[in-house]
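The methods section describes the discrete structure representation at length, but only in general terms. Each protein is reduced to its one-letter sequence and a matching series of backbone shape codes. I believe one specimen quoted in the main text would settle the matter. An entry of this sort, consisting of the sequence and the corresponding backbone structure tokens, reads as follows.
***
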Amino acid sequence: MLFGVVVFCVVVSCFLFLLVGLAGYFNLLYRASKAIKSENRPEEGGKQMKEKLNVVHACLGCGTLMDAVNKQIYCHECNGDFERPECPLCGTLLGSRMPPVHCHECREHLELMEPNFLFDPGHITATPRARHKVLQSEEEDLDLYELLERFLVIGDHGELTQEEHGRNYVNVKRDEGRIVARYRLRAGAIIYVTTEGDRSTTTLLTPQDW
């Protein structure tokens, strides 16, 4: 009788030990599966972010990504009250706090001409006076881009003396020294275009700006 009780207790103990072991095993499996899922979540989040990036648009001012549902051109910050810089060539106001860069239209024209530049013009700008003179006459005369094409692509430097033309020719070939052009608009206004000897800047200016 006593032997039977002992055997029964041993069997029950083994059974309980087996249950505890199985419970621990399944608990470990559950924790491992949770850990794997948590590691995969950033990748899933990255995929979702990439999908979202396909349906957002950037602020034209600072480049901040905005929800595609938001039809505003500029983000909230760029729409605030701040001094907007001008395109250094045509004067178009830019919706950005970033350093002045060319507007979209000027970039398009310059990129089309760039493969045919006779020399590196550097940063291309125009003084307000020169810009005003050219814009006043461009309906029946040259515009800013045609003047730059004559200067940078064609090599036509306008109304210069033979000596000045020769100096420009040498400076272009040597890729050093200042290059100067002088153009007369139909209205009689004079526009100079100059490229500095270090090729840092090219500027459109009037005799008053000289």
In short: The mean pLDDT is 75.
